[in-house]
Amino acid sequence: MNVNILAIESSCDETSASIISNGKILNNIVATQSVHEKYGGVVPELASRAHQQHLIPVVNEAISSSGINKNELSAIAFTKGPGLMGSLMVGVSFAKSFAYALGIPLIAINHMEAHILAHFIDEPKPNFPFICLTVSGGHTQLVLVRDHLDMEVVGETMDDAVGEAFDKTAKLMGLPYPGGPILDKYAKEGNPTAFQFPISDMPGLTFSFSGIKTAVLYFLRDNLKENPKFVEENLADICASIQHTLIKTLMQKLKKAAKQYKIKEIAIAGGVSANSGLRKELENLSNQYGWQVYIPKFEYCTDNAAMIAMAAHYKYQKSEFCGFDVSPEARMKI
Ligand code: KG4
Ligand code: ZN
Description:
Blueprint (H helix, E strand, L loop, with lengths): L3 E6 L4 E8 L2 E2 L3 E4 L11 H23 L8 E7 L3 H18 L3 E5 H7 L12 E6 L4 E8 L2 E7 L5 H11 L6 H9 L22 H17 L3 H32 L3 E5 L6 H14 L2 E3 L10 H13 L17
Parallel strand pairs: 1-5, 5-6, 7-10, 10-11
Antiparallel strand pairs: 1-2, 2-3, 2-4, 7-8, 8-9
Helix pairs in contact: 1-2, 3-9, 4-5, 4-6, 4-7, 5-7, 6-7, 7-8
């Protein structure tokens, strides 16, 4: 019998739906919310409202473009957490009602596990055990992945996420939200060692990114006092230097984790894995240390429902369903 699962992602500011059939992703429909741009960050209340507006059209498109009738669905999967409570509620409530109406089971998915399982959508797939550096707007984690559903967080940030550091430092320079991809674009033209910013020195596999944010704040304030055109005259060099520092911080801990666990299968996941400097540095390290490096396709790096569908595929095989009394968990852990 065919196993067809509809998956829904609504944890932050992308409303997405995807259908997976017998382990193969058929589509990945994403509606991005542009409403947040003018506020310089995601406004939770507006995100929930936009999910309400986008969800049904996105689900309809996923079902109609899959060629599968809704009565042929075997289960409905949704992001249970972590994420914005109001945004999660929209996806969870919809998934419950739809599954209840169709009389099929529900599958609850952890968003951070799903980012990692995005590696199993296409070839080449990492071999177990591997280490995944998950870098997004809300998280920075080193995860030891023993099997599809057997993961352990071995390191994480004690304050800001690296995506947040990209976005906040970009904002300090007057760049629009989300600043990560824009900073990346300017960094390509700049000198990464033009300016020095501190690299945090946390014990073990713990990250910290709040220091660089403060360092950039003071650096800009002092230089703008001397020269009000400092940012526009040096934009590429400042972006390249910030990006260089953030990547160096990430790579220091990744190297440490690889050594500690004696693992050479290395993956990256989450929105920041779209960063061109990070991708290039991983290639360098793979040559230097003999690592096998895995980077997902761009559309599976940022938030999407295909990764939720992939995670649901593995949970379905183990009959890991949840009850209809399930509720979202904003701070859900791996
Ligand atoms: O995984 P994601 O789409 O959403 C969360 O779950 O947070 O990650 C979004 C984050 C944002 O901070 C965004 O600025 C960052 O990923 N990002 C980038 C790049 N593309 C997206 N950061 C640096 N360079 C990029 N090219
Ligand atoms: Zn995410």
